[in-house]
Amino acid sequence: MASHNDTGTRGESIAKKHLEDKGYKILETNWRFRRAEVDLIAFNDSTLVFAEVKTRTGNYYGEPEEFVTFAKQGLMEFAAEEYIYKVNHKDEIRFDIISILFDKFDTYTVNHIEDAFWPGS
After folding, report:
1. How far is residue 42's CA from residue 22's CA, in Å, rounded to a whole number?
2. What residue numbers bound the domain in which 17 lies?
3. Within 10 A of 119 (CB to CB), how many other CB atoms are there?
4. Is the residue at 94 inside a domain?
5. In what order do the strands lie in the sheet with 25-33?
């Protein structure tokens, strides 16, 4: 597996633990619908949370969260609509970004941006 894939997988594990430590219930990891994927789907209070995880080993070209493009947001919305339909969710939803940034000493920071975007806006 390429090192950037290892970095991404490691970041998703850190993000999952971060959410669990905050009391979220993880419902799905890497949930796919057609060409769209959501890294983490979680439940917190009555809110269904769709989270995109971005992991980087440096911020030379910008912070990890800056790489969640409008196209990715649209794909997440597409997948979220199907998931909401599938589980018949009637309460609130939210789109979060969880940014993991490693430094040269292999330590990391987590930036959890709640309600980071609303696709289509």
Report:
1. 11
2. 3-113
3. 16
4. yes
5. 25-33, 36-44, 47-56, 93-102, 108-113
pLDDT by residue (tens digit) across 62-92? Answer: 788 888 989 999 999 999 999 999 999 999 9
Whole-structure pTM value: 0.91
Two structure tokens written together for 1: 């597996």
Site of tokens 């196209």: 71
Amino acid at residue number 110: V
Task: Using pLDDT thresholds of 50, 70 and 90, give the confidence band for residue 3.
Answer: low
The domain that contains 62 carries what CATH number? Answer: 3.40.1350.10
Cα angle for residues 110, 22, 43 (degrees, 5° grid): 110
**Cβ(48)–Cβ(93) under 8 Å?**
yes
